[in-house]
Write a structure and sequence with these properties.
By secondary structure, the protein is an alpha+beta fold. The chain is built from 19 helices and eleven strands. A hairpin with a 2-residue loop joins strand 2 and strand 3. The longest helix is centred in the middle third of the chain and has 24 residues. The radius of gyration is 21 Å and the shape is globular.
């Protein structure tokens, strides 16, 4: 049997019990035939299978290795197409991948990101102050804190003009929560891209001390003109979307388990432990497309034929009992679990991982220090999940802030 012949699971963007669906995927096998937005693929839902898939030299992100039948099934207005068809380092391989990634690796090194801590702390303090000024009553912490904070940080790093940030973030918020009609989503995407194009054009005219100017300076040399726009767009999106979901999930998990929160507030465990455990248990990415077999490949006893696609199931792998044992489905910051795959593995490991971790740590420590009475305003199981096959989060996070610490 090959994946295109039969799909055992149809992955539903509107499913409420994502983790139940993921458990069924893991139980079904190392690689499972699925259908996602009409596309047939193998799903790598177990940790061992996903780790092998992410690093396998014969599984490529280059869409040219996908079968013609698979590409025909891709929906132009779906959520997969913009990722699968992106002509960026995301889908490049080998020397081409190194060429596109090289300039960014210098910017996103752990040392340079570490030097950003004072700025991240200052930006976070500003958003904490804004929260404290809101009127009494439930506050949507995702909208007021978890979302704008990473947007502001990546905008700083990249050099998005301050006067354009609210416009850019507003359009992107529609896309990250997948709310609205296809027409509204298309309009939001066009609005976001217009701001980025105009910013790139302005940096060509007037370079500044920022990442966009650094990329523009490479035009005609290391990068083509269209590659600069594609890279800036990809960096903006990748630079905040997963961190938004990370902060949202981490706060929800901690408020639902006061004992875990006490370990962090009391200093028994570092805030980085909460970041890593939230990344594992509630991976910001639910599923992510796509890798294609360059030739027949065997993964954990299953043969993937040349031209077939493999879907990376990060949220499922993060709760694999074969990897994490009895703690697999439990939030536990008391000890460090084995490493997770939520930032990827192999040559395409996420460049922004150090920045995402930094923003997550700073955000959690500042938020819980400022509002010792912070509490959920709605039971966790009543929160609406993001309707997406790609993302794992909730569309809102209503909380009661309580008084600010003095």
């Amino acid at each position: 049997m090959t994946a295109p012949e039969r799909a055992r699971f149809v992955l539903d963007p509107a499913v409420r019990d994502v983790h139940g669906e993921n458990a069924r995927l893991r139980e079904a096998g190392a690689l499972v035939p699925v259908e996602i937005e009409g596309v047939r693929a193998w799903a790598a839902a177990r940790h061992a299978a996903l780790e092998a898939v992410l690093a396998h030299p014969d599984l490529s992100r280059d869409v040219r290795h996908w079968s013609a039948e698979g590409r025909r099934a891709l929906r132009a207005n779906g959520s997969l197409a913009p990722i699968v068809l992106a002509a960026t380092m995301l889908n490049a391989e080998g020397a081409e991948h190194r060429r596109l990634r090289g300039p960014l690796s210098r910017v996103f090194s752990a040392r340079r990101i570490g030097a950003l801590r004072p700025r991240v702390e200052a930006v976070t303090a500003g958003f904490v102050d804004r929260l404290a000024e809101l009127p009494p009553g439930p506050v949507d912490l995702r909208r007021e804190f978890a979302y704008p904070l990473p947007c502001e940080v990546i905008s700083d790093v990249m050099g998005i003009p301050p006067e354009r940030r609210a416009e850019l973030a507003g359009d992107d918020h529609v896309l990250t929560t997948t709310r609205g009609t296809p027409e509204q989503l298309a309009s939001a995407r066009a609005g976001r891209d217009a701001v980025i194009r105009e910013t790139v054009a302005e940096r060509r005219r007037s370079p500044a001390d920022d990442l966009i100017s650094d990329l523009v300076a490479l035009e005609g040399g290391e990068l083509a003109e269209d590659e600069v726009f594609d890279t800036v767009q990809e960096l903006y999106v990748a630079g905040h979307v997963t961190t938004v979901n990370l902060i949202t999930s981490a706060v929800r998990l901690l408020l639902a388990d006061p004992g875990q929160l006490d370990l962090l507030r009391g200093g028994a465990r570092p805030w980085s432990a909460a970041v890593e455990e939230a990344l594992r248990l509630e991976s910001p990415l639910r599923h992510f497309p796509m890798r294609y077999a360059v030739r027949d490949v065997e993964i954990c006893g299953t043969t993937v034929r040349k031209g077939e696609a493999v879907l990376a199931c990060f949220a499922a792998a993060g709760r694999d009992p074969d990897r994490y044992g009895e703690r697999a489905a439990r939030f536990d910051v008391a000890s460090d679990p084995p490493p997770h795959l939520s930032f990827g593995h192999g040559p395409h490991f996420c460049l922004g991982a150090p920045l995402g971790r930094l923003v997550g740590e700073v955000a959690l420590s500042a938020l819980f220090a400022a509002f010792p009475g912070l509490a959920l305003a709605k039971p966790p199981d009543e929160l609406d999940p993001v309707r997406s096959v790609l993302a794992l989060s909730t569309t809102t996070l209503p909380v009661l802030l309580g008084g600010r610490a003095r």
